[in-house]
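Protein modeling request. Please complete all fields; requests missing the sequence field cannot be processed.
Requester role: graduate student
Desired output: 3D structure, C-alpha cell encoding
Chains: 1
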Amino acid sequence: MLPAPRVTKAKPMSQYNSDLLRLLDERGYIHQATDAAALDALAAKQVVPGYIGFDATAPSLHIGSLVQIMLLRRMQQTGHKPVVLMGGGTTRIGDPSGRDESRKMLTDEAIDENIASIRTIFEQILTFGDGPTDAVMVNNQDWLGDLGYIEMLQKVGTHFTVNRMLTFDSVKLRLEREQPLTFLEFNYMILQGYDYRHLAKEQGVRLQMGGSDQWGNIVNGVELGRRMDGAELFGLTTPLLTTADGAKMGKTAAGAVWLNEAGLPAYDFWQYWRNVDDRDVGRFLRLFTDLPLEEIGRLESLEGSEINAAKTVLADEVTALVRGNDAAKAAAATATETFAGDGIGADLPTLSVDGEGIRIGAALVALGFAGSGKEAKRKVAEGAVRLDDRAVSDPGLIVVPAAGEQLRLSLGKKKHGLLVAK
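Delivered output (422 residues):
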C-alpha cells in the first residue's frame, strides 16, 4: 500500500526562498504540495524539471486546462524546465477523475492528429528547444506502448492496493452514482504513477503538477518513485477553478471555450474573458496574464462601470497570450466596431445560410448563442433577440439573407453574429 505523503499548506509568501514557489503562491496557484519546504529548497538551488499530463481526446484543450498550462509557463519564467506529457497511451484508457461516464475510444490516427493540433497551443505559450530550461513535449505511448502489461503489473501493481484506490474521489464518485467504471479505467492511476517514475528516471523530472482532482494520482507517482527507486519526488496541485457563480471553468451554455482557433474564433474567445463576472477579474488577471501584481491590484480595485476597462485588459492579455497579438487586436477592434460603430465588426462569427433560409432559433444555436432550440425559443420570448437591431418576437421566423447581404443577429448586448448567403 502506498501511504499518503506529508501534505503541507502554502506558506506565507515571505517564507519561500525559491522564485518558483514565491511566484506560484502570490498568484494563487498552490492548493496542496507533498513537501513544500523540500521542494522550495530544491527549486532555490537547481533547475527543476516538472511535468503535467494532458490527454488527447480532442483537437484542442479548453480553458479548463489553461491554469495548468500557465503553471508550466511560470516554471519556465522562474528558470525551470517544463515537460508537457501528452497521454498518447493513457488516452486509450481514459482518466476517471472528474468523469461520470466512460470515455469513447479513439483510433491511433485520431490521437496522433489531436496531439499535433494541441502542440500548437503550447508552442504559443512556452519556448521549446534543447536548452536547460526549454520546454519539451513527450508522449507516454512511447514507453507504455511497448510495455509488457503483465511484467508492469508484477513490478508496479504490488505497490498499490484496491482498498486505497477505492477511496479516491475519482473512483468513489462513479461508484456512488452507479456509473460504470471499467477495469481499463481503473488501471489509469497505476499507469500515471508509472509515467512519473519513467520521467524521473529518464529525464530527471522531480515535480508533477495538476488540478486538485489529480491529487491521488500524483501522490501515487511520488510514492511509487520512492518505493521502487528511492527517489525524492514532489507533487503540487492547484485549487479547483470555478467562476464566482460556482460554474466550472471551461464550458458555457453554448459549449466549451476551446483554446485553438479552429474550435472557437478569436472574437468569441476574447468575448468570453471580456464578459467574466466582476468578482473574477483580479483572480483571472493573476492566473492568466503576466501583468505585474501592482497593476493587477489597481485594475481589480476599479468600481462600477470602470471595472469594464479591467475586463478589456484581461481579454486583450489572455487572447494575445493564447492566440497571438494580431488575433487580440482584431478581436478588440471588432468589439469596438460592434458596440461603438455600425455594428458590423470584421471578426464577428459568421453563419452561411442557404437559399431556403434558417429559423431564427436554429441560427442562435448554430452561432453558439444558445445551447438548444428550447433555450433559443425562451430568449426570443424574453425579447433578448434582435435582427439588425429590430426585436424578434417570432421564434419560427425564417431568415433568408440576400446575396452580398450581412444581417446582424444579436442576443442581448454582448453576443453578435452575422448571417450571410451561401
